[in-house]
Amino acid sequence: MAHKRIGKILSALLASAVFATALPQITLPFGSSDISAAYAATEIDGHSFVAESSGYRLYMREDDLSIVVEDKNTGAYMESAISYDDGKNNASWLGAMKSAIVITMINGNDDTQQADLINDDVTINTTKSDKGFYSEIYWNKYKFGLTLNVEIDENGVKAFIPDESIHEDGDSYYIGTIALYPYMGNSYLDDKSGYILVPDGNGALIYLDDKEGRFKSGFSGFIYGTDIGFDESDVTTLLKDRYNTISDSEKVIAPVFGIAHTDDGIAYLAVVEDGEARASIECIPNGVSVDYNRAYAKFTLRKTYTQPTSNNSTAGSLHIFEAERSHSNLGVRYIFLSNEQADYSGMANAYREYLITNGYLNQADDSYNTRIDFLGTERESWVLGTTPVVMTTVDDIYEIYDDLKTAEVTDILSVYKGWQKGGLYDLPISSYSVESKIGGKAKLTELISDCAESGIDFYLYNNALLINPDEKNATFNVVKKINKRKYEQKTYMDVYEKLLFLIPTRSDTLLDRFIKSYTAKGVNNLALAGITNNVFSYNYSGSNYTRYNTQSSYAATVSKVADSTKLIMEQPFAYLWSDTQAFLDMPLYTSAYIFEDESVPFLSMVLKGSIPVYAEYVNFEANKQEFFLKMVESGSFPSFYITKESSAELIYTNSSDIYSSEYSSYKDTIVEYSEKLKELGTQTEGAQIVKHEILENGITKVTYSNGIKVYVNYSLQDETADGITVGSMSYEVGR
Question: Residue by residue, what is the 3-state secondary structure of 578-641?
């Protein structure tokens, strides 16, 4: 710890010197407001003043375009380049640590060569303005260039690269990826107190303590999930070559990350505003290659992939890269936060405000409901073809609702899966054609109408992405990867071993047909899946389409669907939030990476009070008591996947992983959860989570905008907070 003590002393001395320079005593003429001119000559760590807003000042260094953002009210600041070099780093690392832009180049088939602003022959022409600066940058040896724009506003800074400014003039070097301000808000070992906000699952924190070199990697997650259009490097772990034994990592649902320096009272939330569909979030603790904590967005312009040379899987292959780079503006907005807002709660508040202000999040009815989903029919293999396995009919649903009504459970939202003719995996759905074994179209339509009259929100489930090649003609309109090989999603199940993806235009066409058929019967509640949480590159009819194309197509489709239905979505990505009336299947945990120190309900905090958030199914959680407390903590509503028949009936179907679903086994839990969570939901209805704290005694304290405070105790002993005693593995509500 000697280095930290010495470092703090040096930092204090340097800070005194810096602030003596950065904040001189200036006397302005009476009535003058020309603050910018008064501070134009000031510096912080070699960075000259450029521009300011009402709350922040922007400084920059012209040789590497690194920046400093200073809080005018507190004097605290964050830097995009390291201010302390421990002498352990080679030239490439130092280039990455100081440069505003770090490029991974493709030279032939090698995508590992770095280009930066420190080690390379670069021409930079910078123009400053009262909003910031823009710099035209050209790498003379590699013959490519771009323009970096940095502007300051009332909430912070935006850095962006216009797509039209990116040009590649040579035939030897091409741009693979661009990291934008990769060390913004960096810190050395444990010289700062605070954390990195990681967009893993609902949210996670990596503390800025000394990791002592324990970790070999940090978080790296593609925004909106991995790209199935390219060969992925991960290998599925199977038991007996059949059963998947490793759970998939959580997807990055929202394009955000952040860093908080809690000892300095300054933080930022970064929102990847442009180019997010081809960007990854990198959150890396100290000890991973270098001793600095950092977080940034890395944009992919070209990817390399494996191209088989024949249809024979044992034959050779080529490692090649995309001939044409993707096209999009690239941009990150850094929303800065001060004092009591300089933490992950402040980041959640800032992101919520950002979404609402920009029209990305609309107010929906967030009153409490217990989500009770039903499985209608599945299929199992038979002598020739398949035979139906009926799990929950329309009459069964009536019976279950009546039974719950006697137990005073009436606030219900339901999604009906496997209602369509042919069962759950008869996909895609192109018309309102109902399986006769559950009661037929007339009976289902009557149920939906009766539910509406009794206040139950009843939705039909439609996965608009998948097509089952064993049931439908999948010769055309299916996704091929960029290497022109058909993408296949393995199920590791017996009846249907693989599913395919529809191209976006086909999903749009079939979904439009279904909605017209469905709404013609006077019903319009739709639970949409598949296209809500998948974005990919693909090849179709000899042309390549990027994730930007898919995202744009899905956004247009969903917007159209939202105009003609009452729409809720399964785990929708952030760019679709404005069109959904509810968020289904919110993850309450993270991927549990070893380098993550704490999980926090960041996304739930953002959405609570705007749209209702429903957790993943209670059925499949091993520790149901902890999961219940997670719902209490995050303000989420419970979800149950229910069948009238025993789940043992599903053993020879593709739903054999549903090991517990029978209503009679879950009735008591449904009643108990509904009673407790409805009471809490009523108290917090319409209110936002404005503060989430993990207190020293381990109690989690959640504060709502209406004054309600929820105390959750995950420990095995009673604890007290604010004079309220909270029992072991329990919660209390106060004001």
Answer: HHCCCEEEECCCCCCCCCCCEECCHHHHHHCCCCCEEEEEHHHCCCHHHHHHHHHHHCCEEEEE
Rounded Cα distance between 100 and 106, Å, is 20
- Tokens 């705007």 correspond to 610
Cα separation of 268 and 264, whole Å?
12
* CA 87, chain centre distance (Å): 36
Share of the chain above pLDDT 90, in %: 87
Handedness of CA 651, 654, 659, 664 (dihedral sign): negative
Q: Which phi-psi region, left, alpha or beta, contains residue 386 (left: φ > 0; alpha: ψ -120 to 50)?
A: beta
Q: Could you give the CA distance from residue 75 to residue 67 in angstroms, rounded to a whole number? A: 15
Helix, strand or coil, per DSSP, at residue 694:
strand
- Reported as a single tens digit per residue, the pLDDT across 551-584 is 999 999 999 999 999 999 999 999 999 999 999 9
Peptide bond into 428 cis (omega under 30): yes
Q: Evaluate if residue 239 carries a pLDDT over 60.
A: no
> Class of the 91-357 domain?
mainly beta
CATH topology of domain 370-734: TIM Barrel (3.20.20)
Cα(284)–Cα(461) distance, integer angstroms: 39
pTM of whole model > 0.90? yes
Helix (H) or strand (E) holding 553: helix 547-564
Task: Specify the 3-state DSSP secondary structure of 442.
Answer: helix
Domain ranges in the chain with CATH number 2.60.40: 91-357
Task: Enumerate residues 6+ apart whose C-beta is below 8 A from 36.
Answer: 49, 51, 52, 130
Give me the chain's average pLDDT, please: 91
> What b/e readout covers 183-207, taking b as 16+ CB neighbours within 10 angstroms?
bbbbbbbbbbebbbbbbbbbbbbbb
Which ranges in the chain are annotated with CATH 3.20.20.80? 370-734
Tell me how crowded residue 563 is: count the other CB atoms within 10 A of its CB: 9
| Angle formed by the axes of helices 394-406 and 440-454, nearest 10° | 20
Per-residue pLDDT, 42: 85
